Amino acid sequence: xxxxxxxxxxxxxxxxxxxxxxxxxxxxxxxxxxxxxxxxxxxxxxxxxxxxxxxxxxxxxxxxxxxxxxxxxxxxxxxxxxxxxxxxxxxxxxxxxxxxxxxxxxxxxxxxxxxxxxxxxxxxxxxxxxxxxxxxxxxxxxxxxxxxxxxxxxxxxxxxxxxxxxxxxxxxxxxxxxxxxxxxxxxxxxxxxxxxxxxxxxxxxxxxxxxxx
Length: 213
Prior knowledge:
Helix content: over 70%
Strand order of the largest sheet: 1-2
Largest sheet: 2 strands, antiparallel
Strand content: under 5%
Distance between the termini: 83 Å
Order of helices and strands: HHHHEHEH
Number of strands: 2
Shape: elongated
């Protein structure tokens, strides 16, 4: 069985990832993955995507066809387009209610698996020490705070350990994000510098050619 210390730390990482990525993005990803599997809505989603592609194709063909010079062709495309739009709307409306229920279920399960689990662990293991602090290392009031709310005096409670893990995860996440932004800025700057250098070389070559002429 994994250590409770590790479980709390991993749980804080998951909560941070959910908050960083965003609930809507995660719901969309889960909905896409769900429909990739042989589920009851798999065929309906595939048909809806096919109809949407067909509607866009017919729309482009209608725009490229003159309603005056090629009226017969344009009218035929218009009838096909209207029929495809009606079929697409019907299929999309049938999926809309199921998708709403799926999003609600995914949101509830995600909350239970992250914050809900965190609250349960903090309640269930409120009296269990995560680890003990060597005697005399900290003043009495600090030991009281470390054990808050119900852990034995001289130990670190699961609530304090969770706060410490969340703080570390947020700091590391912010450092990684800042490093990625810095790397991207350096790459963009290097690319712009190469473009400027290439333009200077090209201008210099043209100047020499004109001088030779």
